[in-house]
Amino acid sequence: MAQAEPLLLMEGITKTFPGVRALRGASLRVGPGEVHAVIGQNGAGKSTMIKILTGAYRRDSGSIFFNGKPIEFHSPQAAQLAGVNTIYQEINLVPFRSVSENIFLGREPRRLGFINWSRMNAEARALLQQFDVKIDVTRPLLTYNVAIQQMVAIARAISFKSKLVIMDEPTSSLDDKEVSTLFEVIRRLKAQGVSVIFVSHRLDELYAVCDRVTVMRDGQTVTDKAIKEITKLELVALMLGKELGEVTRSGTTGFSEGTHQAEEQLLEARKLKVGHRLNDVDLDVRAGEIVGLAGLLGSGRTEVARAVFGADQLEGGQVKVDNRPVHFRSPADAIKAGIGFCSEDRKVEGIIPFMSVRENMTLALLPHLSRAGIVQKAKQQEIVEKFIKRLDIKTAGPEQKIRELSGGNQQKVLLARWLCLNPRLLLLDEPTRGIDVGAKSEIQALINELANEGLGVLMISSELEELTEGCDRVVVLRDGHSVAEIPHEGISENAIMAAMVHETAAAPGGERNTDV
Amino acid sequence: MSELKSVENTLASPTGKAPTGPARGNGLKREGLGNFLRSYGALLALLLLVIYNIIFTRNFLTTQTLNVNLTQVATIVIVATGMTLVIATGGIDLSVGSLMAISGALAPLIFLSKQGPFSDPVLGVVAAFIIPVLVAGAFGLFNGSLVTHFKIQPIIATLVLFIAGRGIAQVVTNGNLQTFRNPSFQYIGLGRPFDIPFQVILMLVIVALTAWVMRVTIFGRYVLAVGGNEAAARLSGVPVNRVKLAVYVISGILSGIAGLIVIAINSSSDANLVGQNMELDAIAAVAVGGTPLTGGRVTIFGTLIGALIIQLIRYTLLANRVPDAAALVVKAAIILVAVYIQRPRQS
């Protein structure tokens, strides 16, 4: 298909942050009146690419043509004036001001230096009318729901005479009905000749509303195709960097293959529900087995772990530990029941940076380490030294500040934080993300060893090798539902990917196994 | 000569960096003067102030001067110790001065009462020590629950009692100045066991006890964990809300004690004046002492030094007859310098 002059052409874009090459010659081409999907895993470079386009970041090299002219936005405001508008996931409007004020913020129509309220309200009404949104524009924005607020953000974008609207995961906080309203708006934008860049992890939505799709991986653009010419499975394979039908290689991880002896039921979760993110998740973990939790970004993997651990409150469903129903009101309750949780983001939710290795490691153990409220230092020291040795943590000593350690060693300390409690069930959210290869396979081997000793493990991972080689079973999530449970003999990269996009034909054991 | 030196240096450098031991030293980079100042800046500033005074202030090296300064600094130190704990959790407590006023207003009402259970002199004095402090602690609990259960930012939550607290104190006393003479109650401000002012002993006990609690108890570790990374602490089972409640209660209790000391020294209680601007002195003492306002790190000893610095600046300016107006500016400038040299390096 010979394309007309593209509205936006980004080519050879590179961007390096300290220690990370975020973009390595990435490209993006959006035609006029085109709805263009951009997808990729965490860290693929999508948001860096968009921030460079909107002027929030400066690129290291590469060229950007907009409307046929080379451009260089120095700030998001400059991009806005030139007709590039972004609607962020977290809507950045002023909640206490009226709808019309929000639409015209910073360029209110004036008369004799005063705001011309009647004209502003009328224009706001007219803008929203285009999308069949009929609301009182004089009421504060916060009195409306998220979907309406998003419409207001879009109306604001249109009022700038935008030629390109960027939507960053616009549907993540919308319900089904609101999503279809949003899609209607996107189709109207398209009819007016406005282009849309649509970032989302929900593949079905891409097929519902997008014309073309760009897939990014490791800072590069790996595909730019019409959406009709590519299947969901192919999209996922491209995102994850897998060949379709590729034979599972073995030995790339520290896991040794082979099932563990599945023993008694430890965790039984049924119909978990938390907000929009988690709708209907069923999950079992037995002692001595590693259960993988797979799914695309935003499918609700982390939410499952947090809900089980009592970090988020369940709105529905039930969790049983040892066949007894439990209701954890806080992580402390879950810890008492013998559960540990290694969160995904070490910096934000894991380490306490200015504390020592010793104190970070024993934080959850402190209640068992103290007599009359006083920490028994000798006992503490003994445990810390034992785990430094056992996990081979590279540190100058127990008193070194944890922030001075490498990512892999920080992760080992955090694992030890739970292991020293002798837990029965460990929830691991991306346990090997962002750590070097050596530490990675050590941690994988450790998880394997622990399962052999009878620990139940629920492991969230975006890496298919980890799931295929490490897990005894894999539960696959999609849009907050558990859609498949793949038994050990059926685990393959293809089966997992197929379940992620719900093409059941390729997923043996796609039906849930009800008999235990 | 200089050549010889450089040879010596090259020879010395490989062996000169011998590790101090396997457990420490290796991972910590030494950055010379900057690091030294960051760690010992407050102590150094205090030393400089003392040296300056020895040279320029008449009669500085006398026990009388020492006693005057220690007596005056005691209330700041006591309040600042509680403030340090609050700040260590990442919070702040603006209500300390008002809580001093409340406690200071309540005590005379109790020991001066002519009827009721507290008309008994012994019981009256005992109750005058206990009840006001407990009331101040209860107001601390109120601060803490605004912060934990209602998720109000600490600066706003404690602003409520900063404003209302002094009003409460005035309502309780009908706005009257209460004057009294009651040696057994006033022992807390005027007593001198072993010729040392009683409140100085009290101050040292509180500082030592708090420093000990922060170092060896599970509570101390929890305070630092909450301030260092609240999300991580919660996920590790730390009772975050209870820890926060506790630090505001402690801050309230210590403010209550300080309020009693102030009225005991003055032999009178004026709800308008007791503890006025104390929140500012206490926060300044914590900051000058080297505890970052972002939480997660703490030095109780530093707070003591910080309060001593502030007190000594005030004394120095007064003793050298610097006019009040200028004194305030100089005080602010010195605080700024002290905090600047201790600023964290960028990460």
Distance between the termini of chain A: 53 Å
Side by side, the strands of the main sheet of chain B go 1-2
User: Do you know the CATH architecture of the largest domain in chain A?
Assistant: 3-Layer(aba) Sandwich
User: Major sheet of chain B, described briefly?
Assistant: 2 strands, antiparallel
The tally of structural domains of chain A comes to 3
The total count of strands of chain B amounts to 2
> Roughly how much helix do the residues of chain B carry, as a percent range?
over 70%
Question: Mind sketching the topology for me?
Answer:
The complex is a heterodimer of chains A (516) and B (347).
Chain A: E1 8-17, E2 20-30, E3 35-39, H1 46-53, E4 61-66, E5 69-70, H2 76-82, E6 84-87, H3 99-104, E7 110-111, E8 114-115, H4 117-129, H5 146-159, E9 164-168, H6 176-191, E10 195-199, H7 203-209, E11 212-217, E12 220-226, H8 232-240, E13 265-274, E14 278-286, E15 290-294, H9 301-309, E16 316-321, E17 324-326, H10 331-336, E18 339-342, H11 346-349, H12 357-361, H13 366-369, E19 370-371, E20 374-375, H14 377-390, H15 407-419, E21 425-429, H16 437-452, E22 456-460, H17 464-470, E23 473-478, E24 481-486, H18 493-501
Parallel strand pairs in A: 3-10, 3-11, 6-9, 9-10, 15-22, 15-23, 18-21, 21-22
Antiparallel strand pairs in A: 1-2, 1-4, 4-5, 7-8, 11-12, 13-14, 13-16, 16-17, 19-20, 23-24
Helix pairs in contact in A: 8-18
Chain B: H1 2-16, H2 33-56, H3 63-88, H4 96-111, H5 121-148, H6 154-172, E1 178-179, H7 183-190, H8 198-216, H9 218-228, H10 230-235, H11 240-266, E2 268-269, H12 278-288, H13 300-319, H14 324-341
Features:
heterodimer; A: 516 residues; Rossmann fold; 6-stranded mixed beta sheet; 18 helices; globular; B: 347 residues; mainly alpha; ABC transporter involved in vitamin B12 uptake, BtuC; two-stranded antiparallel ribbon; 14 helices; 2 strands; disordered N terminus
